Amino acid sequence: MTMEKQKENPKFSFLFGGEFYNYYKYKLAMEQQQLICKQAQDIEPTPQITTIPLPALPLPPTLVPPPQGAPSIEDLVQQSQWNVQQQEQQLINLRQEQITAAVAHAIEQQMQKQREETHLDMTEFDNLLQPIIDTCTKDAISAGKNWMFSNAKSPQHCELMAGHLRNRITAEGAHFELRLHLIYLTNDVLHHCQRKQARDLLAALQKVVVPIYCTSFLAVEEDKQQKIARLLQLWEKNGYFDEATIQQLQSPALGLGQH
Q1: Which domains, ranges and CATH numbers included, belong to the chain?
Q2: Does residue 183 contact residue 212 with C-beta atoms inside 8 Å?
Q3: pTM for the whole thing?
Q4: One MF term from GO for this chain (predicted)?
């Protein structure tokens, strides 16, 4: 309509391709675009942002004091530590028992081999040991000593006899008189070993004297220990054993553990 009215008006010549026609078309396009955008905004409502409530943070648990008479945390910790220590001790004891059993088995195998090699009759030896255990007379001790010297034919013979004495003396349940009387026999044999230069038998007895002496000493009361200790004084005086062996005998508990 405007173009019809202003067709002959030179001021509106740009409507019909005049000098500013291109500028007019540009401005017209811009205005149309803005109008379209405004209408779209009026029609489409602005989306509402829904606020999602945050979950409530959990409150820390209320510390409830233990009921009266219940153990405290410190008591429970101490009990737990005690339980661990007991378990460790049980494992140590079990390990010690296993080691002891393994050593005993190895010793028995060695002695069995020596019995087969030497053909020594340990029953005959036991028959001579029994009167010593029962009466401990000089004749009984002399008979046992003579049998040992008669059969000390090789280091294997000597080790078998010394090992048999050790087994009899250190056996579980062996009573004090058995141990003491067989130690008296051992003492008499030591004296004659030195006098007769019986080195193999002396060396064999040195290998077993620590368990023989220490086991017997630790198993009895003080008054009985004194009877055994007198023999150690005699052994030191006569120089039957080397210094390392004497030191083990002087500290029976330590010596037995080191042997």
Answers
A1: 121-258 (1.25.40.90)
A2: yes
A3: 0.64
A4: RNA binding
